[in-house]
Write a structure and sequence with these properties.
This protein has about 160 residues and is an alpha/beta fold. Helix content is about 30%, strand content about 20%. It is built from 4 helices and 6 strands, in the order E-H-E-H-E-H-E-H-E-E. The longest helix is centred in the first third of the chain and has 17 residues, at about 30-45.
Amino acid sequence: MKKLYIIRHAKSSWSDETLNDFERPLNKRGKANAPMMGARFKEKGVMPDIIISSPAKRAKSTAEIIAKEVGYEKKVLFDENIYESSVATLRKILTCINDENSTVFLVGHNPELNMVVDYYVKFYENIPTCGVVEIAFECERWADIEPKNAKLLSFDYPKKSDE
């Protein structure tokens, strides 16, 4: 089985209008939410085998903060193809992951993350900033992940209360 955690970057700042979109940093809320979501992963005992992130500043910061919170000691991989991506590109990135990795964190941006989640599990909710969608695939190879072997396991986000 393969597990994929789709993670939207934490809330970013729009305060400096001179910055281009790629360079926008996390704002105060984003800097609080990313470690909180990382702590939730840790509480659940979730440890990724690999973290792949957009290199945009807000996504990179989110990935690095979550990695620190869960105790991930490998390098976060930054793939520029995740920024301003498409469903086809994200699917290609996912299906090319080394099969030694069973649990993957993919950190990126909307609307593309929402579209790729919808492709695999017919998901109609908006993924808010720092939101996490957990999908399990009943297969042994990333090349074999498809909607037919995908199952939505959880959807979490900073403002979601413990129900």
